[in-house]
Every structure is written in structure tokens, then in C-alpha cells.
Write a structure and sequence with these properties.
The chain has two domains: 184 residues, Immunoglobulin-like (Sandwich), CATH 2.60.40.420; 240 residues, Sandwich (Immunoglobulin-like), CATH 2.60.40. Strand 1 and strand 2 form a beta hairpin. It has 497 residues and is mostly beta strands. It starts with a strand and ends in a 37-residue tail after the last strand. The longest helix is centred in the N-terminal third of the chain and has 9 residues. Helices cover 8% and strands 31% of the residues. Strands 3, 4, 5, 7, 10, 12 and 13 form a seven-stranded mixed β-sheet that branches. It has a seven-stranded mixed β-sheet with strand order 17-18-16-22-27-24-25. Strands 19, 20, 21, 23, 26, 28 and 29 form a seven-stranded mixed β-sheet that branches. This is Plastocyanin-like domain-containing protein. It holds the Pfam family Cu-oxidase_2. Keywords: Membrane, Metal-binding, Oxidoreductase, Transmembrane, Transmembrane helix.
């Protein structure tokens, strides 16, 4: 028996996007179907042939495709995203599949492929397949504006996730479940196996009365926006409230409220856009992210893209060459625009520290959430430049505003946070007492920005402020084997002429 599934995927265009596969954006079920399928309402599940009646363009449900056990399955992925230079890597759990076809439409009159055209090509025998020992894979990149054809035998019963491997596409719905077989094909759930559920507490505006909020004079039925996109945070308003306008329910260290901190650090962050000839050079493999517009980018904080140290500094600082570390005042001489090193800022123990984050990315509606490990900080300021003639803020302008007293700060019980969204084209000001010695990561909390360098280490105190490393503590290193083209000769490569 052969089951053929034609699956398309697309990202709705615009500033705020979700992902769709076969016009459905995946929503996780309230309980794991493998062990608790009876606890999930049948209407929770859907697919291209069985969509909820109420579904709009952003149809959200648990996308599940049912497949008979031992069926031969062919999947055709069709890229309707069609962003230049962006190929989506799709991964199937529980299986290795054979790749029998990859390509674009042979019809040169077709500028953009879609489901209807792919079906027509298949009907006419124009979706090329090859069956001469096709390779096995579990992840395959779908060419932009193209297609991939894969096959496998559905001999592993269960609920298997199939998804784009870009984490930021997973969280907005570019996934589905392949359900193979029936409950009778699975082993019984072990007695006493943990159970999960959708334990979401009710939330209403009435429940916020026990918090001290001087601006909560709005009618209770009116919605409030937390951290509005316009970042107007220096005056009360009836439609929104900024974190910096909240008051702390606890007493705040008075030293944090003094006019001048012991240490003041300005940290501008931005993206560097590569040209292809810069990125793809012999004997190099530079990290990068393909952005929605097709640009190849890395992240920079204070002109540095973070590179992990070869060993953990907390336990093996003596194994790391000093030149591995850098900061804005101490960059390697050979640093290019994509300066890569282990960005580390040294702070004296117990100093009062002020950090000013300045957004030089300036993407509309994109506010970067920064997280500090090891500390809670007070939020003393959020905003944008008060100079209406300035269209784009940068480090130089932020320093000038600070010199002129125009970076607004408030010291009336500022709230504690450990993660804070920096308004696009704006700034945030945070303070903390550096009383927890160690090496603490400070980073944007978008995982796809973390992997391309939007991080740094806050190093508090000195080695003498830390407890000794326990005897026999595991040691780590940069155990990277040498790689050269000569080492590839033992692989079977039919094109190696």
C-alpha cells in the first residue's frame, strides 16, 4: 500500500508571522498523545482533509497525518515561502527516509511554485525521481522555491514529529505529527507513568490588584499592553504600561538608586550583513543566520560576535589563552567587521553596575529580550531618543543623550527583572550590585540570535572570590579533529573524478 502526501509550507508575509504546513499552523496538544491520547478531544487534531470549520487564515490545531503501519509513504515538500537563499531543513523523528528527488519546476514560465503546480507536474510525470540507491537521511534542506521528494516504510508505530529544524519556525507552527499505526500496535503505558495536562490558571485583570501599581487606574474591562511598541515610557498612559513604570514590592538596595554607579557600560547591539563572497571562502566555515529577507547575518554586541571558549572559564580559566577573551576596549588586532572572540567584561565584586543596551538592529516591531544569568537587576529606564530629528539611535547618540541628562531614569522603587525586552530603535537602562562572583552569561533570549553571537560574559570578582574546584571535577576541552579533503577518500563518492 502506498500513501502519497503532498505537503506545502509557507510563512505568512508581514512583520508578524506564523508558519503554515498545508494551511495549518501546528499547536501542541494539551497532553502527550503517545501516553494520553484518550485525554485529548478529537477536535484538537486536524489535517488538510479535516480542518476545523472555524479555521481562518491562521488555522491553529494539532496537525496530525494518520498512516497505516508498514505502508510505503511518499512525502513531497513544496516551498511556498520562496525567500532567496533560505532553504528550510526538515527533520523527521523516528525514521530515516530515502531522498528520491530534489529540484525546481522545469517549466521556465513558472516564477513561483505552489501546490497546484506541483500536483500538475506530478500528474504529468515531471517531478523527477531517481531510484538507483537513493541516500538515507533524517533531515533534508528544501531548496527555496523548489521541492523535495522522500520515501520511507512506516514500520515504527507511534506519534512522530516532522518539522523545520529552524527553532524559530518550530515555535510558530512549522510542524506536524505523523501518526503511524494504531493504539493496538503500541506497547501498553507502564503503570504509574507520569501524566501531563494543560494546567493553565485563569488570568484576569482583577487578579492584579494585590500588586502595587500606581498607574492601574484604567477601567478593569479595558486591555493593557505591556511594553508598547512605541516605547513611550516616561509618562503615564491609559492604554499601556512599561516595565520601568512598575514599582517594586520589595525594598530596593539604596546604593542602586544613587545618581552615579561605580561602573557604567554602554552595549550597542546589531547585525552584520555578509556579502556571499565574504562568507563562503576556502578553508573557513563562519557561522551565520539566513534572515527572513534572505540576508546572511551574524550578531554583534559592541562590535563583537561571541565565540565560546574552548573550556569552561569557571573551572578551567588557566587552560584558556588570555587572547581568547576580548571586549570593546580590548579587541584583537586582526579583528575584521565580524570580530569573533569570547566577549568578557570584568566587574569588581560588590560594585554598583549600570548597563545601557542600545538597539542598533532597528527592525520594525522586533524587540530583543536580554537575559542575565546569576542576577536580578532593577529596570531604571526604557525609551527612545527624545530628539525627533534622530531617526535611528546609535551608540554615539546614546552617549550624547546621557551626557546631556536626557536618558530618562527613575529611582522610585524600580522593579526587579532578569529578562527585559529592548524596544526596537530604543534603549533600556538596568542596574545591579555585582555581589555574586563568577562568569555569568548575558544574552538575547532568541535562540537563533544566541547561536550567531548576541552574547557576552559578565565576569564578577576574581579567582580568589570563588570556591576551589572540587577534586576530580570533570574537565572539558576543544577536542576538534583536524579536517582536510584528503580524509574524505574513504567515503563512496560517485562524482569524485
Amino acid at each position: 500500500m502506498t500513501v502519497i502526501a503532498i505537503i506545502i509550507y509557507a510563512v505568512v508575509t508581514g512583520d508578524h508571522v506564523i508558519s503554515l504546513i498545508d494551511e495549518i499552523s501546528y499547536q501542541s496538544p494539551p497532553a502527550p498523545p503517545l501516553s494520553q491520547v484518550e485525554d485529548i478531544a478529537p477536535e484538537q487534531f486536524c489535517n488538510g482533509d479535516n480542518r476545523p470549520e472555524s479555521c481562518g487564515e491562521n488555522c491553529m490545531c494539532t496537525h496530525q497525518v494518520d498512516i497505516p503501519l508498514n505502508a510505503i509513504v511518499e512525502l513531497v515538500l513544496v516551498d511556498e515561502v520562496q525567500v532567496p537563499n533560505l532553504s528550510h531543513p526538515f527533520h523527521l523523528h523516528g525514521y530515516a527516509f530515502s531522498v528520491v528527488g530534489i529540484g525546481r519546476s522545469p517549466d521556465k514560465n513558472i516564477k513561483k511554485i505552489n501546490l497546484q503546480h506541483a500536483l500538475d507536474l506530478d500528474r504529468r510525470g515531471l517531478l523527477h525521481r531517481h531510484f538507483d540507491l537513493p541516500p538515507n537521511k533524517d533531515t533534508i534542506a528544501v531548496p527555496n522555491n523548489g521541492y523535495v521528494i522522500m520515501r520511507f516504510r512506516a514500520d515504527n508505530p507511534g506519534y512522530w514529529l516532522f518539522h523545520c529544524h529552524f527553532l524559530f519556525h518550530i515555535v510558530i507552527g512549522m510542524n506536524l505529527i505523523l501518526h503511524v499505526g494504531t493504539k493496538a500496535d503500541l506497547p501498553p503505558v507502564p503503570q504509574g507513568f507520569p501524566r501531563c495536562g494543560h494546567f493553565t490558571p485563569p488570568v484576569s485583570l482583577e487578579n492584579t490588584n494585590h500588586y502595587h501599581n500606581p498607574y492601574l487606574y484604567i477601567q478593569r474591562k479595558q486591555d493593557l499592553v505591556l511594553n508598547p511598541l512605541d516605547a513611550i515610557c516616561n509618562k503615564p498612559r491609559k492604554d499601556a504600561i512599561c516595565v520601568s513604570q512598575l514599582k517594586n514590592a520589595k525594598k530596593v538596595d539604596e546604593a542602586l538608586l544613587q545618581e552615579r554607579p561605580d561602573v557604567k557600560i554602554f552595549l550597542p547591539f546589531k547585525f552584520l550583513v555578509y556579502k556571499p563572497e565574504q562568507l563562503f571562502r576556502p578553508h573557513r566555515y563562519d557561522k551565520f543566520l539566513v534572515a527572513p529577507g534572505g540576508d546572511h547575518v551574524i550578531s554583534l554586541i559592541d562590535e563583537i560576535s561571541y565565540l565560546s571558549a574552548p573550556s569552561p572559564p569557571l573551572s578551567q580559566i588557566d587552560d584558556i589563552p588570555p587572547e581568547q577573551f576580548c571586549n570593546g576596549d580590548n579587541k584583537p588586532e586582526n579583528c575584521e567587521q565580524n570580530c569573533m572572540c569570547t566577549h568578557k567584561i570584568d566587574l569588581p565584586l560588590n560594585s554598583i553596575v549600570e548597563v545601557v543596551l542600545v538597539d542598533e538592529v532597528q527592525a520594525p516591531n522586533l524587540s530583543h529580550p536580554f537575559h542575565l544569568h546569576g542576577y536580578s537587576f532593577t529596570v531604571v529606564g526604557i525609551g527612545r531618543s527624545p530628539d525627533m530629528n534622530i531617526k535611528k539611535i546609535n551608540l554615539k547618540h546614546a552617549l550624547d543623550l546621557d551626557r546631556r541628562g536626557l536618558l530618562h531614569r527613575h529611582f522610585n522603587l524600580p522593579p526587579f527583572k532578569d529578562t527585559l525586552a529592548v524596544p526596537n530603535n530604543g534603549y533600556v537602562i538596568l542596574r545591579f550590585r555585582a555581589d555574586n562572583p563568577g562568569y555569568w552569561l548575558f544574552h538575547c533570549h532568541f535562540l537563533f540570535h544566541v547561536v550567531i553571537g548576541m552574547n557576552l560574559i559578565i565576569h564578577v570578582g576574581s579567582k580568589s572570590d570563588l570556591p576551589p574546584v572540587p577534586k576530580g571535577f570533570p574537565r572539558c576541552g576543544h577536542f576538534t579533529p583536524p579536517v582536510s579533503i584528503e580524509h574524505q577518500n574513504h567515503y563512496h563518492n560517485p562524482f569524485n573524478w
